Amino acid sequence: MCGDRTTTASPTMDPGFVDHVLNKSPEVVRVYLPPDANTLLSVADHALHSRDYVNVIVAGKQPCFDWLSMDQAKAHCARGAGIWDWAGTENGGEPDVVLACAGDVPTQEVLAAAQLLRRHLPQLAVRVVNVVDMTRLLPREEHPHGMSDFEYDGLFTTDKPVIFAYHGYPWLIHRLAYRRTGHANLHVRGYKESGTTTTPFDMVVRNDLDRYRLVMDVIDRVPGLAVRAAAVRQEMADARTRHHAWIREHGTDLPEVADWAWNA
Question: Gene3D superfamilies attached here (predicted)?
Answer without folding.
Answer: 3.40.50.920, 3.40.50.970
